[in-house]
Design a protein that fits this description.
The chain is α+β, with helices and mostly antiparallel strands. The chain is built from eight helices and 14 strands.
């Protein structure tokens, strides 16, 4: 059973069914860097040393850690470092404050707060704290993805809700619409969208209108070069395929993991070269070069396919006769009918 992050009811008119939400996404366990305190170097600068020379001398040992030109990792790891602990404290006395003494408060004036107890905040619950009422349905294509926030899976909470959810989901799928309602999460009422997802239902919290900035793309004045658009469309067509999320990985995390391993083992660290693209001056020439660069991979595949075909096509064409029957009904207009090769029988 998935972990429930919210439980309540989904309601369509008079039909209510108990549900619970489970997050549809998860955060990958990325490498976490902590703030640590490390004592400064013990060597003191000479008295006759200038400020610039002293700054350069002090900064020089830190350079391998930043750009990784040469490894001094083993020595760095032996230096004492202590993790910094951030705890709440009284800014007037500096004394640490216990968790039971911390309450919620609103600063209505500088340094002036009004505080709330947990019971007072609980009394603010509205209907959407427990019920998602599907108030309106909209065609799925009319929703701008920029409003999507956090996805959830919507599960039936008990056997009695299974049939009701399936009926609502199938009805939305057949109508091609998504349902809209309200949901209160973390003391905030959010607009949510509910839509079929496979054999189940997914829920998306949506950003409010004041959270989305209007686009400032300017005006689309002037006609585009039709040939340039055609070349760009050819590039897109050559790179079109199926969506495979496993093909995308966090290369920064991989590089950071390799850096940690190299410093722990005292190995040389080679900085990765990052190439900054140059601005495009001649768009037409750049598009043509891009198309020519992508063509070898496509033509190589085509050549393999041609080599894999039987050599019969290079011989003299045999007698071809159209096949009559049911297959002819499935052919599209403009396509030549299927053929059969008729060869003379060998005499026994």
């Amino acid at each position: 059973m998935p972990r429930a992050s919210w439980s309540g009811f989904l309601r369509l008119s008079l039909v209510s069914c108990p549900i619970y939400l489970s997050p549809a996404t998860t955060r990958t366990r990325s490498i976490r860097l902590h703030q640590v305190w490390r004592a400064a170097a013990t060597d003191e600068p000479e008295a006759d040393e200038s400020d610039r020379d002293r700054d350069n001398r002090v900064a020089r040992p830190l350079r391998p850690q930043l750009v990784g030109l040469e490894a001094t990792g083993r020595a760095d790891q032996n230096s004492t470092a202590t993790r910094i602990a951030l705890r709440p404290y009284d800014p007037r006395t500096g004394e640490e404050i216990g968790k039971p003494q911390i309450v919620k408060g609103y600063e209505y004036s500088r340094g002036q707060f009004v505080t709330f107890s947990a019971e007072e905040l609980k009394a603010l619950d509205v209907e959407s704290s427990k019920v998602i009422d599907l108030e309106r349905f909209v065609p799925r294509g009319d929703i701008d993805p920029v409003y999507f926030d956090t996805p959830y899976y919507l599960y039936p909470d008990g056997p009695l809700a299974v049939e009701a959810l399936r009926v609502i989901g199938v009805a939305m799928a057949e109508a091609g619409v998504a349902g809209f309602g309200r949901l209160t999460l973390s003391r905030r009422e959010r607009m949510v969208m509910v839509e079929p997802h496979g054999i189940g239902i997914a829920l998306f919290t949506l950003r409010a209108a004041d959270e989305v900035r209007p686009a400032q793309f300017g005006s689309a004045e002037g006609d585009l070069n039709a040939e340039m658009v055609a070349i760009a469309r050819a590039l897109i067509r050559q790179r079109t395929g199926t969506f495979d999320p496993s093909a995308y990985r966090d290369r920064y995390q991989e590089a950071l993991r390799a850096l940690i391993k190299a410093k722990l083992e005292g190995l040389p660290i080679k900085p990765q070269e990052v190439i900054t693209p140059k601005p495009v001056i001649d768009l037409m020439a750049t598009l043509k070069r891009s198309l020519a660069q992508d063509m070898p991979a496509i033509s190589g595949t085509t050549a393999k396919q041609k080599r894999g075909k039987p050599a019969a096509g290079r011989r003299q064409r045999p007698l071809l006769l159209p096949i009559a029957g049911g297959r002819k009904r499935n052919q599209e207009p403009g396509i030549e009918p299927a053929v059969v090769v008729v060869r003379p029988r060998k005499k026994v």
